[in-house]
């Protein structure tokens, strides 16, 4: 077996020189001081490969046009096995890529590894950083939810402000003032057609330059014999890659990447937020007003990029030990404080509306189809902790029967009697009686009658605000005048699509004093607690149109 | 005993890893023997080198599996979508004449990935001599061409490669490998309802 394998290797090597090439690559000399601090470059290449792999997988089930983009992404998240994990890897991988690339630059900067003759290596690296950011910018639009849409509106308008080039950039990005199908197509094209080959070429050039000049030594290295890249340094790189991948995998598996509602260009209440690594730019913009705005949006970032490219020409002194590089360390500290401060300010100044619980469209949203009475049943189901004894949709404890299977064979009257005195209806039942009023038991029964194995996910995915809001709705008998999901009286206006007609603020004020806002309204005023008011409004705003 | 040897190897590995690489002022594993570098180019002792190489492959394998397994599930497992078995009414049964197949078109909604599409389908409905009703799928089981009823021969004829099927769907001639596919059907009073199309087996009558 071994000999056969060797023969195949020799044959290939004689024709292609592959073994020699790999050997030359692996047994490269590196300075004696090399070690853990040089792992970031390899990790960045690894993360790029992960992005390429997961990106290709996503593209297999993704339709790159605005309306379909959103639906196909929901399909990936809710219908496909592993789809959520793969999107998580791609989403968090992007963030990690930024972190690792910046760490890589910090290391090079701190050690002065960009100095002569490695200026070109550094400059190619800066371009790679810009390309990485371009992925972030273009990829942000592709889910086509509200977050994506409004974030991109801001970004394209910033590009349009650029002196001289602004109008051309705006036209190139397809945004003649608006983000639409053209912008979407161009962003997608950039993201999957132009940027990846550009990255590969730049990476090859970058690695070639690193190899040409060798890994930068530190003062004192020349006294020591050089080491080989393989296997010790490759081992360290691989361990770092393993750690980064473990963190990435855990994040992808455990941290849910939100998907908001389908992009709505008419939504006037949405507060756009860019991705975290662009927040500092977003915040810096607020420091400049009126005609000076272009300074914050284009001039300053442009100068920063230029300065970054020119770093090797600004600092041309001899290479010294990292502990003696005071100026560089001080500069780095200032930059870190500036970036951290602006980012923190942006996070703190995020208005409360942007933080109120948004509906998570990355999970099935069957719960939206339930009537308020059934939804209130979900709240009672949770309050009474029925899941402690019953199985619903594959989980729960199997002390009592699976409610997706049994409930459909019963009627409401039977259930309500059973809730009150379980053993009277089912002799031998160990279920304790439920201490709720008849009206409350009614809505619990209404929910259970609706429950089947297809919509059992509704129980898990109903957000807290929706079940609590429906509870408020139900207990105040709002259905006596309003229709929700086709259930209720038609005295007042139907409440589906309320979010399209009124602002949150208006609705909350309207509860307190309807006649102030609608003079001929016959709706009584409702004095609700702050929490109830928020839940009820969030619930009504989450209803399907 | 192999167990003892394993312990000894582990101990020596630990000893190598624990030694302070800078004690002698030389990098770890440097043995000063330049000629040796040609054979083991890293110039390190073999135990330590084996550990490095083993770890590189192990971590690589774990990462490949962590990406490969979900990718396989993602590409090959069917979507979780609940496809509702709706029964579509395609007309009355009284108009059927025994052994005279009737081509019936109907619309049905089908889940295609993330989209529900409404598409036109065709069924050949046949009432047998024993009054049993069957509905055949519209495609020849050979290469999927549309066949038609040849009244002269009283057979279904596929024009592509001249496959012939009887009114009961069985292959009479030609390259078709199995009988015509059948729809699930339900008769409710006078109404004929049509369900899923099921692939016929090769040995079915």
Q: Gist?
A:
Chain A has 545 residues and is mostly helical. Chain A has 3 domains: 25 residues, no CATH class; 248 residues, Cytochrome Bc1 Complex, Chain C (Up-down Bundle), CATH 1.20.810.10; 177 residues, Cytochrome Bc1 Complex, Chain D, domain 2 (Orthogonal Bundle).
Could you explain how this protein is built, in words?
With about 550 residues, chain A is mainly α. Chain A contains 25 helices and 4 strands. In chain A, the strands form 2 sheets. A two-stranded antiparallel ribbon of chain A has the order 1-2. Chain A has a two-stranded antiparallel sheet with strand order 3-4. In chain A, helix 6 (about 120-140) packs antiparallel against helix 9 and helix 23 packs across helix 25. The model of chain A has no long low-confidence stretch (mean pLDDT about 85). In chain B, a hairpin with a 6-residue loop joins strand 6 and strand 7 (about 165). Chain B has 2 domains: about 1-75, no CATH class; about 90-200, Rieske Iron-sulfur Protein, CATH 2.102.10.10. With about 200 residues, chain B is an alpha+beta fold. The interface of A and B includes residues 85, 228 and 242 of A.
| Strand residue percentage of chain A | under 5%
Oligomer: heterodimer
Helical fraction of chain B: 10-25%
Low-pLDDT stretches of chain A are none
The succession of helices and strands of chain A, N to C, reads: HHEHHHHHHHEHHHHHHHHHHHHEEHHHH
CATH class of the largest domain in chain A: Mainly Alpha
**Which fold name fills CATH's third level, the topology of the largest domain in chain B?**
Rieske Iron-sulfur Protein
Q: What would the principal axes of the Cα set say about the shape of chain A? A: globular
Structural class of chain B: alpha+beta
Overall shape of chain B: it is: elongated
Q: What summary fits the major beta sheet of chain A?
A: 2 strands, antiparallel
């Amino acid at each position: 077996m071994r000999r056969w394998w060797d023969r195949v290797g020799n044959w290939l090597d004689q024709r292609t020189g592959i073994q020699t090439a790999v050997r030359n690559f692996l047994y490269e000399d590196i300075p004696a001081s090399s070690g853990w601090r040089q792992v970031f470059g390899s990790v960045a290449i690894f993360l790029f490969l992960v992005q390429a792999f997961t990106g290709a997988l996503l593209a297999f089930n993704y339709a790159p046009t605005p309306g379909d983009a959103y639906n196909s992404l929901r399909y990936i998240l809710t219908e496909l096995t592993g789809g959520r994990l793969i999107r998580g890897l791609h989403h968090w991988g992007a963030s990690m890529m930024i972190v690792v690339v910046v760490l890589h630059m910090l290391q090079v900067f701190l050690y002065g590894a960009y100095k002569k003759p490695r200026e070109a290596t550094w400059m190619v690296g800066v371009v790679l950083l810009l390309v990485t950011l371009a992925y972030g910018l273009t990829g942000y639009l592709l889910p086509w939810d509200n977050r994506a849409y409004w974030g991109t509106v801001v970004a394209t308008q910033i590009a349009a402000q650029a002196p001289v080039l602004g109008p051309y950039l705006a036209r190139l990005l397809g945004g003649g003032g608006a983000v639409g199908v053209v912008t979407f197509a161009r962003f997608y094209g950039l993201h999957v057609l132009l940027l990846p080959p550009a990255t590969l070429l730049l990476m090859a050039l970058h690695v070639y330059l690193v190899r040409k000049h060798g890994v930068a030594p530190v003062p004192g290295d020349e006294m020591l014999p050089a080491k080989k890249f393989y296997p010790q340094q490759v081992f360290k790189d691989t361990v770092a890659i393993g750690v980064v991948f473990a963190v990435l995998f855990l994040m992808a598996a455990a941290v849910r990447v939100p998907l908001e509602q389908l992009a709505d260009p008419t939504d006037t209440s949405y507060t756009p937020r860019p991705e975290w690594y662009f927040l500092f730019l977003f915040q810096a913009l607020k420091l400049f007003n009126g005609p000076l705005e272009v300074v914050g949006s284009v001039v300053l970032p442009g100068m920063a990029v230029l300065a970054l490219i020119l770093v090797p020409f600004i600092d041309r002194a001899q290479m010294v030990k990292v502990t003696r590089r005071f100026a560089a360390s001080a500069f780095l500290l200032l930059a870190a404080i500036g970036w951290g401060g602006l980012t923190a300010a942006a996070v703190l100044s995020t208005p409360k509306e942007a933080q109120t619980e948004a509906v998570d469209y990355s999970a099935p949203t069957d719960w939206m189809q339930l009537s308020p009475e059934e939804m209130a049943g979900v709240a009672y189901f949770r309050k009474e902790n029925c899941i402690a004894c019953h199985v619903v949709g594959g989980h729960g404890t199997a002390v009592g029967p699976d409610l997706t299977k049994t409930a459909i064979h019963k009627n409401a009257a039977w259930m309500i009697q059973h809730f009150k005195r379980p053993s009277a209806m089912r002799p031998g039942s160990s279920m304790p009686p439920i201490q709720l009023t008849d009206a409350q038991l009614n809505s619990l029964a209404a929910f259970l009658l609706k429950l089947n194995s297809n919509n059992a996910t509704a129980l898990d995915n109903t957000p807290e605000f929706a079940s609590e809001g429906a509870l408020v709705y139900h207990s105040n008998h709002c259905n006596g005048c309003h229709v929700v999901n086709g259930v209720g009286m038609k005295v007042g206006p139907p409440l589906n699509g309320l979010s399209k007609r009124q602002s949150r603020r208006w609705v909350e004020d309207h509860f307190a004093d309807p006649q102030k806002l609608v003079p001929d309204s016959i709706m009584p005023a409702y004095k609700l607690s702050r929490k109830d008011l928020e839940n009820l409004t969030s619930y009504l705003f989450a209803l399907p149109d | 005993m192999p167990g003892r040897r394993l312990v000894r190897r582990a101990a020596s590995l630990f000893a190598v890893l624990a030694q302070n690489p800078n004690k002698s002022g030389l990098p770890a594993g440097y043995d000063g023997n330049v000629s040796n570098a040609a054979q083991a180019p890293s110039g390190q002792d073999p135990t330590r080198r084996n550990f490095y190489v083993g770890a590189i492959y192990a971590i690589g394998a774990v990462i490949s599996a962590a990406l490969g397994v979900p990718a396989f599930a993602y590409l090959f497992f069917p979507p979780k979508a609940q496809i509702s078995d709706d029964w579509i009414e395609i007309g009355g049964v009284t108009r059927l004449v025994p052994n005279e197949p009737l081509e019936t078109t109907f619309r049905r909604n089908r889940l295609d990935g993330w989209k529900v599409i409404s598409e036109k389908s065709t069924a050949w409905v046949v009432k047998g001599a024993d009054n049993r009703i069957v509905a055949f799928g519209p495609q020849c089981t050979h290469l999927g061409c549309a066949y038609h009823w040849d009244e002269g021969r009283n057979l279904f004829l596929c024009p592509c490669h001249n496959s012939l099927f009887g009114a009961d769907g069985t292959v009479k001639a030609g390259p078709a490998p199995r009988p015509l596919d059948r729809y699930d059907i339900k008769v409710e009073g006078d109404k004929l309802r049509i369900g899923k199309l099921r692939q016929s087996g090769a040995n079915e009558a």
